[in-house]
Design the sequence.
């Protein structure tokens, strides 16, 4: 009754950061080494889900590729310093004669692999710890522009495209069209349908109101990375994980590890193995997203969800109640705190006495 007109599932955002420091901050080779020593080429990560009994369940390993490098600037005094970048690899086909669908397909293929892999590992947890889940993903690939280069003309070679602009003071990365998975179908030549079909409904649609932290195009204006001033604050890719109710789940904990490998100029450089975890027990707030340069952060996105009119005239609220704050046994039974089992009142069954199996009348 209480939650009849509320949406009780929750969505968490897992954000993978893009690092792009000011040119002046990495003008010496020592500073470039300092930047690269914790930047990955391939990140291995797992997700740990905490259920309502505080039992933890950890998924199988998933990987995400990163592009990390530093290149010393060339030319006049206003191009001193270096261009250093570390961002999730979202390839793009820049060859002439290809359709927009074909150009963005490498990015969409990356998003599909990550979404399907993470969703499958969540559903494969023992004892069906998560009975239902759904994973979207989103990203922007970057184009390299400068005075002498109007647009990238290579396929999947961000370091080479940056090299073309090292002698220009106005070198910048410009986000291309925002991409998400699953994506709508198209009749355009070269279109490749997603593995999971795009469905325009509340259960399967990723509403754009919750993607702003990864969408680098705001109100039609691209947020460029120009390597000047303060270090750029941007996320290159995000996974959006929907978990079942009856309330907001504990934050997914991302455990990750990698051996930093990258390019410093033409040299391959490798550093000491690193491991890390996301914030334990609490989500990262909007005003704290960029206070610390964490590789991965996790957010609660329920407060950002809005009702879409296409889902019906009677708008439902999105429940913000945490699982731990819900009443024991749905107020339909007595909890045995030693065993954690609900002794349900007559007419109710289920783990939380949340299933009504009979209607009882009294006279």
Sequence:
């Amino acid at each position: 009754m209480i939650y009849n007109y509320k949406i009780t599932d929750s969505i968490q955002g897992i954000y993978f950061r893009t690092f792009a420091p000011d040119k002046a901050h990495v003008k010496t080779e020592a500073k470039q080494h300092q930047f690269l020593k914790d930047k990955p080429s391939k990140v291995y990560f797992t997700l740990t889900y905490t259920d309502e009994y505080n039992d933890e369940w950890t998924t199988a390993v998933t990987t995400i590729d990163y592009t990390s490098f530093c290149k010393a600037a060339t030319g006049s005094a206003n191009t001193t310093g270096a261009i250093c970048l570390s961002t999730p690899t979202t390839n793009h086909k820049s060859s002439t004669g290809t359709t927009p669908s074909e150009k963005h397909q490498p990015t969409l293929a990356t998003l599909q692999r990550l979404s399907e892999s993470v969703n499958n590992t969540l559903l494969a947890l023992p004892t069906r710890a998560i009975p239902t889940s759904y994973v979207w993903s989103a990203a922007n690939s970057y184009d390299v522009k400068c005075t002498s280069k109007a647009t990238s003309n290579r396929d999947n070679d961000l370091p080479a495209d940056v090299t073309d602009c090292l002698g220009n003071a106005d070198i910048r990365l410009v986000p291309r069209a925002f991409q998400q998975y699953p994506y709508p179908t198209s009749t355009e030549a070269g279109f490749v349908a997603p593995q999971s079909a795009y469905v325009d409904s509340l259960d399967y649609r990723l509403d754009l109101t919750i993607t702003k932290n990864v969408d680098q195009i705001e109100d039609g204006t691209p947020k460029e990375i120009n390597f000047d001033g303060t270090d750029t604050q941007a996320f290159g890719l995000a996974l959006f994980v929907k978990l079942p109710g009856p309330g907001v789940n504990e934050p997914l904990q991302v455990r990750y590890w990698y051996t930093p490998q990258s390019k410093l100029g033409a040299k391959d450089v490798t550093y000491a193995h690193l491991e890390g975890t996301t914030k334990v027990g609490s989500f990262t707030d909007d005003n704290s997203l960029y206070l610390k340069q964490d590789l991965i952060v996790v957010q609660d996105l329920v407060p950002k969800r809005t009702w879409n009119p296409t889902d019906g005239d009677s708008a439902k609220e999105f429940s913000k109640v945490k699982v731990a704050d819900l009443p024991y046994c749905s107020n339909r039974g007595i909890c045995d705190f030693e065993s954690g089992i609900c002794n349900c009142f007559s007419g109710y069954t289920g783990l939380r006495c949340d299933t009504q199996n009979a209607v009882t009348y009294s006279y």
